[in-house]
């Protein structure tokens, strides 16, 4: 259970919670083509947790046995995306794709259980191109579909001990992704109305869409179930050149009492090994 303090201004300056970082092995350690070798590299670099965007090309038994042998925690998976050649990026908000969503959820649950992963990012999917009134109607229809699918999926995930997460993704990186703002995410969580649905707060995406990181984080902290970090605008490691002062951000997170995982979901600006100086500085 995450423990958080809602009002940062009420905290004494000495209040701290140790930070726990997980390496995203879909984006870091890509010098290794084999996913299992990336797990090895993360462990050797000192990470106690890993997240993975799409592990679905590796058989569950092989991946689970390797994770168990390493003694590293699987902190997060993305739900099965579908066929990237068809432009699929999840199905949860796609009208008429309810069967595909259910089938993809079953696959995702299978991997979560095998890897003992307790968090699943439920991918909403991509919007088709529409303009004017058609776009407004489509947005509402997609939100209704997303809410209905989540109402079915979230209790099912809870029974398996898996927290459901939704994540606003900025419209520069993925222009057509359905869920892009904090207001959308908050409204959808409110409509679903279930304790097992939380917000995946990615500082990269929130900076790109909203800015005002301190106030936005404080405002949404009661709903945050997972954090991710990288450096805008190019998604490099936290201490690369960019818009966010992560010394301040990590100190702020510590003071909130957040005791969950922080996923390092970034594209190294050089080698993966060279990109880890920030981790050596901020790891607990």
UniProtKB/TrEMBL annotation:
State the active site.
Answer: 167 (proton donor/acceptor), 265 (proton donor/acceptor)
| Known EC number | 5.3.1.22
Query: Is the Lyase keyword given for this protein?
Result: no
Indicate yes or no for the key word Isomerase: yes
Annotated PANTHER family: HYDROXYPYRUVATE ISOMERASE-RELATED (PTHR43489:SF6), ISOMERASE (PTHR43489)
Enumerate the catalysed reactions: 3-hydroxypyruvate = 2-hydroxy-3-oxopropanoate
Give the protein name, as stated in the record.
Answer: Putative hydroxypyruvate isomerase
Q: Which InterPro entries match?
A: HyI-like (IPR026040), Sugar_Epim/Isomerase (IPR050417), Xyl_isomerase-like_sf (IPR036237), Xyl_isomerase-like_TIM-brl (IPR013022)
GO biological process, alphabetically ordered: glyoxylate metabolic process
Record organism: Holothuria leucospilota (Black long sea cucumber)
Molecular function, one GO term? hydroxypyruvate isomerase activity
Please give the family membership noted in the entry: Belongs to the hyi family.
Function, as annotated, reads: Catalyzes the reversible isomerization between hydroxypyruvate and 2-hydroxy-3-oxopropanoate (also termed tartronate semialdehyde).
Every copy of the Xylose isomerase-like TIM barrel domain together lies at 41-281
Its EC top class is isomerase
| Keyword field | Isomerase
Q: Which Pfam families match?
A: AP_endonuc_2
């Amino acid at each position: 259970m995450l423990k958080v303090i809602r009002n940062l201004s009420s905290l004494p300056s000495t209040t701290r919670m140790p930070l726990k970082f997980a390496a995203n092995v879909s984006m870091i350690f890509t010098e290794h083509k084999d996913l299992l070798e990336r797990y090895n590299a993360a462990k050797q670099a000192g990470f106690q947790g890993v997240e993975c965007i799409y592990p679905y090309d590796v058989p569950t038994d092989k991946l689970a046995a390797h994770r168990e042998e390493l003694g590293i925690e699987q902190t997060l998976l993305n739900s099965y995306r579908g066929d990237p050649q068809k432009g699929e990026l999840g199905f949860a908000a796609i009208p008429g794709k309810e069967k595909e969503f259910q089938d993809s959820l079953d696959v995702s649950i299978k991997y979560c259980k095998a890897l003992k992963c307790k968090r699943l990012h439920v991918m909403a999917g991509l919007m088709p191109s529409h303009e004017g009134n058609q776009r407004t109607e489509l947005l509402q229809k997609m939100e209704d579909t997303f809410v209905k699918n989540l109402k079915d999926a979230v209790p099912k995930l809870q029974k398996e001990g898996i927290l459901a997460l939704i994540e606003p993704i900025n419209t520069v990186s993925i222009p057509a992704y359905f869920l892009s703002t904090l207001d959308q995410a908050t409204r959808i969580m409110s409509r679903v109305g279930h304790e097992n649905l939380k917000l995946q707060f990615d500082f990269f995406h929130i900076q790109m869409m909203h800015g005002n990181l301190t106030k936005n984080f404080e405002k949404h902290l009661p709903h945050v179930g997972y954090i991710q970090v990288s450096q805008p605008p190019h998604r490099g490691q936290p201490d690369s050149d960019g818009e966010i002062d992560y010394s301040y951000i990590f100190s702020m997170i510590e003071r909130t009492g957040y005791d969950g995982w922080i996923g390092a979901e970034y594209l190294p600006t050089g080698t993966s090994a060279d990109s880890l100086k920030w981790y050596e500085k901020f790891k607990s």
